[in-house]
Structure formats: C-alpha cells, structure tokens
Design brief:
Layout: E1 4-11, E2 17-24, H1 27-36, E3 40-46, H2 68-83, H3 88-98, H4 102-116, H5 121-126, H6 134-146, H7 149-206, H8 212-245, H9 249-260, H10 265-286, H11 291-300, H12 305-319, H13 325-329, H14 336-348, H15 351-411
Antiparallel strand pairs: 1-2, 1-3
C-alpha cells in the first residue's frame, strides 16, 4: 500500500493542541502513530504538501541543506527538553514542528519515523550523512551508550556555536575585500569592452601615432571582447568540476598543502585547522569516545588533507602504545606550543581540558588574525583599484592631451 502524507491535529497529555505532519498508509495508521506519541487525535486529513503542483521543487546542487547554525540550535533545544524530562520522541516531534528550516524539518520527520520504529537516534541520524556531521552522530551515540545524552547534546551545541562564530568572523572580515575585488574586475571589464572601443574610433579619426599606454589599452580591449565570454564559460565549467571533485583524494592531496603555504592566508588557515582539531578532539574525548575512533572522526572533520594524514600517523602511534604529541610534533601544521601542551595534558591526565584551552586560544588568534588581515587588505584593495582604474583613464585621455599640446604649439 502506498504511503501518503497527512496533516494532523491532536491534544497532548497537558491538553495542548499540537499540529504536524506524518506519513502513513491510512488515517487509522496515522492515528495509531499519534497515540504512541502521546497525542489524542482530533483531526487527520491527507496533506497536499509534497504532491502535484504543491510539491516543493528541489534543484540538485542548488537546494540549501541543513546549516551548522540550525544544528547548533537544534542540539541546544534538544538538550533543554530532554533535561526537562520530555521523552526523545516527544522532543523530536516538537523540534520538527517549530524549526524554521525546511530541510531540517524534513530530516526530523524521517528521524521521528525511524525512532518510532525502534531505531536509536544515532542510527537514525547516520542515515542522513549529508545533514549530520560524523562528529555529531558519534557524540550522540556515545551519549546514548553512556546514558548522558543531554550532556552530549550540550557539547555538540557548544562546539557548533563556536564553529559558527568562527566562520562568521572570517566571513565578516573578508566580505569587504571580496566586494571591492569584484567591483574592480567588473569596472575594468566594462571599460575594456564598452568604453575603450568608443575612444579607439575617435583615435583612428585623429590619425597619428598613439602613446604606448594607449596602444596597450586598445590591444587589451580587442582581446577582452572575445576573452570575456571564454573566461565566463571556463569559470562555469570549472565551478561545476570543482563542486564534483573538490573532496576527492587526488584533488585534496594537491590543493590542501598548497592552501597552507599561501602567503598571509596560509597561516590563517593553519590556525583555523588547529582550533577545529583541538575543539573537536576535546569534545570527543569528553564524551567518552575511544581515542582511535575520535582521531579518525576528527581527521575526517578537520577540513584539510595534511591534518588528516597527520592524525593517521597519530592513530598508528597510539596503537603501538606511544603518545599523541610525538607524531604531531613531526607535522608542520601543529606549532611546538600545541604539541607541548598536549604532551603535558597526556602526562597529567588532563588532555581534554588542555585541548579545550588550546582551542579557545586559537579561536581568539583566528579572530585577531582576520581583523589584522582586514585592516591590511582594505587600504591595499582601494589603492589597487585606484591605480588600475586611474591608469586606464589616463591612458585613454593621453592622446587628447598630446593633441591639445600640438594645437597650442601650432597656434603659437
């Protein structure tokens, strides 16, 4: 029998009216599921949402998935409701009804259905690897196993909130330089394609020999007329290829080490990677995840192939009964201060606390570095924009200046 979507209205144990959507083979099946959720059915009608012309259109590659901020809010709310004594199923149902993120609502409805069928929360999340990061799934699994799910969710919320804050500070710092760069590129292209050809026809009518800067500008204009469409097509093709291949081993092995060697930005990326590693590793250890499993997960979520390879070496060292700090010291990504503090944490039995302090320190370092980078880039971008656009204007008017000088000399 086909599964249909139903909109329901029910009353919970406290007498509150609850609305939502459930999938089922019939109204009776939906009513049965509502009773297992602690709801007394009031109204059940077949929902048009998801069928016919009312179906939500999702374009592959363009539809927005579940964001990290949504996951942070969800984890914080789940921890609060579970701490208040609500059942997991009731908590998930409330979250699916009140969240403003449509992708998260759809995922939570699937998770509610799986949990109702006896699946654990972590296993239900595991079915949605695109929406839930590995670190979240494993922290939830550790909380379920150890009986401290509320604490695990609090850890996830804090971790994701710090990550969102870090990303926000970086985006805020780089927004202005990127906008200026785009405006400069558009202005230069527009001048070369539309304005310079107009001046070129005027120069041809004047006759004579054009100055070298003007000749170079005219040549660039003639090239840009056919080069601009080619660059646009190449850019689109590259964007499609990059989106499909950026996470492959071959591309990451080549690109990720290059990122860390970039001037100025390379050091910033190292600090971001170290902050993320320490924060995630501290969360995993605090939740009771085994060291080897934690290292594997942290490596996957590090965002850089170099760090992932380094953590593989650390895992091999741990299997042999050696320390974590020793192989980390051999990697160029981790500064001596980090490896020494980790070594002290291992010796004193306070590795989690030490990692947390390192993560907080490098979060502050990243924030300070982005502010310094912005302060340095902004005037530099303005100067470059002024030189480029001003130079083009001078090159355009240079023949007119020369012609005016010639006329004045002839008149005198």
């Amino acid at each position: 029998m086909a599964t249909l979507a139903y909109a329901y209205k029910g009353r919970d144990g406290a007498g509150k009216i609850v609305k939502g959507h459930l999938d089922g083979s019939s109204e009776a099946a939906v009513a049965g599921r509502m009773r297992t959720m602690g709801l007394s059915p009031i109204e059940i009608v077949e929902s048009a949402n998801g069928t016919g012309l009312s179906k939500e259109i999702k374009i592959p590659g363009l539809s927005k998935g579940v964001g990290l901020k949504d996951l942070a809010v969800m984890s914080r709310q789940m921890a609060t409701m579970i701490g208040a004594g609500l059942t997991l199923l009731r908590t998930l149902t409330i979250l699916s009804e009140q969240t403003e993120s449509k992708p998260l609502t759809a995922v939570l409805l699937n998770i509610v259905r799986d949990v109702e069928g006896g699946t654990s929360l972590s296993d239900a999340m595991y079915k949605h690897p695109v929406d839930f990061p590995p670190i979240m799934i494993n922290l939830v699994r550790a909380g379920e196993t150890g009986g401290f799910l509320e604490d695990s969710l609090e850890t996830i919320a804090k971790n994701f909130e710090n990550e969102v804050k870090l990303r926000g500070s970086i985006k805020a710092a780089l927004t202005y330089p990127v906008i200026v760069l785009i405006m400069a590129a558009v202005a230069v292209a527009a001048m070369l394609i539309f304005i310079v050809p107009t001046f070129k026809s005027m120069f041809d009518s004047l006759g004579g020999t054009l100055p070298v800067p003007t000749l170079m500008l005219v040549w660039m204009s003639s090239v840009m007329v056919w080069l601009a469409p080619v660059l646009i097509v190449v850019g689109i093709v590259f964007a499609i290829w990059w989106r499909a291949n950026k996470n492959t081993e071959r591309v990451r092995r080549t690109v990720d080490p290059f990122k860390l060697k970039l001037p100025v930005f390379g050091m910033l990326m190292k600090k971001i990677a170290v902050a993320r590693f320490c924060r995630n590793f501290s969360s995993m250890i605090g939740a009771g995840v085994p060291i080897l499993q934690a290292l594997h997960i942290v490596g996957e979520t590090s965002g850089n192939w170099v760090i992932e390879r380094a953590l593989h070496s650390v895992a091999d060292s741990v299997r042999q009964g050696k320390s974590i700090a020793e192989p980390l010291a051999q990697s160029p990504v981790f500064p001596p201060m980090v490896t020494q503090m980790i070594s002290v944490g291992e010796d004193s039995g306070s590795l989690q606390q030490m990692l947390s302090k390192i993560g907080d320190f490098y979060d502050a370092e990243v924030e300070a570095a982005t502010e310094q980078l912005t302060a340095m880039i902004e005037p530099l971008m303005v100067a470059v924009l002024g030189v480029v656009v001003g130079g083009m204007i001078v090159a355009l008017y240079l023949p007119i200046f020369q012609l005016t000088t010639v006329i004045q000399n002839q008149g005198s």
